[in-house]
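User: Batch of two.

Assistant: Item 1 of 2:
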Amino acid sequence: MSAISRYETLAMLPRMAKLLLLSCVVALLAGTASAFFLHSLVWATAMRDSHRYLLCLLPLAGFVVGWVYLRYGSRVEAGNNLLIDEIHDPTRIIPLRMVPLVLWGTVMSHLFGASVGREGTAVQMGGALADQLTHLLKLSNADRRILLMCGIAAGFASVFGTPLAGAVFALEVLAIGRMRYDALFPCLLAAIVADQVGLAWGVLHTHYAIQFIPAISGWTLLATLVAGALFGLAGKLFADSTHALAARIKRLVKYPPLRPLLGGLLLLAIVWPTGADRYIGLGIPVIVDAFQQPLAPYDFAAKLGLTVLSLASGFKGGEVTPLFYIGATLGNALSPLLHMPFSLLAGLGFVAVFAGAANTPLASTIMAMELFGSEVGIYAALACVASYYFSGHSGIYRSQRIAHGKHRPFPRGLKLSELAAWRQRQSD
């Protein structure tokens, strides 16, 4: 080994030690916060299931959450998009109040019956808690970026029990077509430790099992590609519908707390008389059923519609678990059409709709192998990549940058939220 190589190796050690310590601290904070959050969701779901009349309070709960965010949370209302923006263009430390606000707001959404998820909450808590170390330790912008990514990785990993997917998600979600490998070590460590911290606090993750994985053949590969394309279109429909409806509601209803109030009234009018309780909350039992038995072919559409309405009207929570639900039930419905095992297509849909909607095919493929076993890897990779391409340049995170276009070149660094205006300028 040359003298230069030895010097580079030795010079790297202090930074590695620093990143190791910081990532472990972030993991401890994020894993603990996620554990408290998940236990709170279990309580909220059990309360709602045993006291159905709580649905009647959904509009009021929406108004209260909306008012609290208007009064105290305007700086953090952007949620995951705020984290992505701060990683790309650091400006101000994320306020610590993001943690209690998003936790309380999401628990209220689940307690009273909105159709939302949980990933967004865990990621926001992880990122906000991590960013407090920036101020405390006076970190540089470069270290702050890595710290925020560690918070995202830790939050994602601890809420789903998928540390490898959590680490890759934090690297992949920032920009379409580019990953930040300089943060690989701390994100991986933060994700692994946060997952273990959650388990130590008694978190129990749902087990999903693909009952049969067929041998690879021409037909199974073709069917997987077709299903992946449909999963990508479903992810695109979800993302585009949520953004379009949210923009329309904001134009029509100027006072923010009224938006979830009106959305809650509409949700109540749909769910209460029809008994459509299976489409609200996380919907974990329905996801499990999608792996075990044939379900109604319209389940995915009903969940998609109620989730779009819930998120667009301002209820707090994530998008990912509803995307799991939509994907698993859509895969279940496609099974007889593609002559593939319904549990396999449910598993592929589970990860592939998310891959298309979040533009994270690698993280989604790794998640499939963590949840269902390595044997599903080839099918999952095909489905997730096909979904990624067929979802186009849309996504649930509007602050994602385009580093490399999927089908055509775009200006480097263009946000998804800026894409429509750019296309309009090009056509003029």
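Item 2 of 2:
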Amino acid sequence: MKRLTGAAMLAAMMHTPLHAAQHWAASWQASPQAAWHAEDFTLPTGVPAALQRQTVRETARISIGGRRVRVVLSNRYGRQPLTVGEVHIAGANGAQAITFGGARSAVIPAGAPLVSDPIDLPLKALELLQVSIYLPRHTPLSTFHWGAQQTGWIADGNQAAAATLDNPQPLSGRALLSGIWVETMTTARTVAAFGDSITDGNGSTPDRNRRWPDYLAAQLAPDGIAVVNAGISGARLLGDRMGANAASRFGQDVLAQPGMCAVVVLIGINDIGWPQSVFAPREAPMTAQRMIDAYRQLIAQARTHGVRIIGATLPPFEGTQIEGYYTPAKDALRREINRWIRERGEFDAVVDVDALLRDPSHPARMQQRYDSGDHLHPGEAGYQAIALAVQPLLTTSRGSSLR
């Protein structure tokens, strides 16, 4: 056999793709965030501080299907390794044990994700999956997801393989599950919805998949385009209380996801509303330039990775009952930011959520038909309208506009 030199070997590798038939796409996501202590913040986490000798079962609706699947667990904000005893995934085609390096148990290093082996499990678009994780040791939930809009369950003992849990207790947030990837037959394409509680789906009916990324996923599934929800309730462009600031998590939550080709950015209302409110009473008022600089950082990150970035204007929020959240000065700042998003042309495209949802006779307020009732978050009609407005920016009458 002829031995190749280092340069020849490198050239051969460049012209012979490894695993050329594999096209992995992120098909579902829950962005990790750091848990906080009850005494440090006005909102509860809604999840236990720790689990031990218990099984967590979570439901997730994927966006596109595939022939094989990987599960991603996260210990991003943990300070110690976490032991996973057993993981099972169940869908319409049955249930299977998930392995990690060929083993059913694994350790998630502190600050890291854990990606499973590929499992042969054919999945359909928009299929509901259940992922069950047994945690045999003391497991602090330092990393979780607050606004699940999906009921999970906790049960004592190892019930990961059980078809039905025995005496489960409801879980309002998400524990370790952060992603589901599928292998497709063609080039993978994933769109991320990056934002705050408006993207995370506050105001929608839990367990019904009626957030705007859910509606968009249903619209794009026939084109083979996946949609993942990278929204975190309370998230901001600048600030780290509920989720890390936008620029610091953008790489992991968006750019590092397999198949990523486009992102819709709908974030910033908390940067305006939080300062001097019950959430951040001692923070100085936000300025337009600070927010614009933060948007430009996201644009720069996306461009260097060849990811199309779509900016969304911020919807109106007069009437919200959160103490100190709305003032006329804050609304003036929102309108200034929206003018920059619409007129400067720095995003690749713009979806005008403000114009879509606002009351024409009272532009500082949301139209009643789109309002969830809290005057800050859209209801399901509003979320569906956002998805319908985003879709044309991602597809054309002749099919997908994404590459």
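The chain has two domains: 23-178, 189-400.
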